[in-house]
Amino acid sequence: MLKIRLTRGGAKKRPYYSIVVADSHSPRDGRFIEKVGTFNPLLKKDDPKRVTFNTERVGQWLGKGAQPTDRVARFLSTEGLVKWTHGENPKKGVPHERAKERAAQRAERAELAAAQPAQEAASEAAAETIVEAEAPATKTAAEETPAEVEAAAEIADEGAEGAQDEASES
Questions:
Q1: Contact between residue 82 and residue 71 where contact means Cβ atoms under 8 Å apart
Q2: CA-CA distance, 84 to 71, in Å (whole number)?
Q3: Residue-wise pLDDT tens for the chain (170 aa)?
Q4: Per-residue DSSP letters for 130-165?
Q5: CA distance to 22, 56, 67, 86, 88, per residue, from 83 (Å)
Q6: Rounded to whole angstroms, how far apart are CA atoms 143 and 122?
């Protein structure tokens, strides 16, 4: 089968392509039948020398059944020689099976990491309630009622009188 495709030339980091007609089984930069044009990607897109090709020869090869590659079909569609449409690949952005497995594992690890601080906080709260239950209940001065304050004061007065009585007896 004949293909109209690009062959790479030029230097390292300075590409220059030839548009050639070649057998589909020959290597990219290998044997070809005829050179029909050039493509220089370093030139600006609106530069007329960026893509040049012999429209007569390309038309003849297309008539003989040569199939252009996708990139060459783009170039030929500007001259109206070939109808080119943008290809659709609905699976392009879908990850493969192993990537899906890794994402699921990452999600599980994230859930465990998020649940672990909550479990630690719950265990600390449980430990605090156990410590509070074991400790005797003591009220602060702000929590005592006025009646409790008066009762404590009377007991303190009685205790002070008793201490004075004992001191006078000795």
A1: no
A2: 10
A3: 899 999 999 899 999 999 999 988 988 888 889 999 999 999 998 999 999 998 999 999 999 999 999 899 999 988 888 888 787 888 888 889 999 999 999 999 998 888 887 777 777 766 666 655 555 555 555 555 666 667 666 776 665 555 555 555 55
A4: HHHHHS-----TTTS-HHHHHHHHHHHHHHHHHHHH
A5: 21, 17, 12, 10, 15
A6: 28
pTM for the model: 0.52
Strand partners, 11: 14
Q: What angle do CA 11, 12, 14 make, to 5 degrees?
A: 65
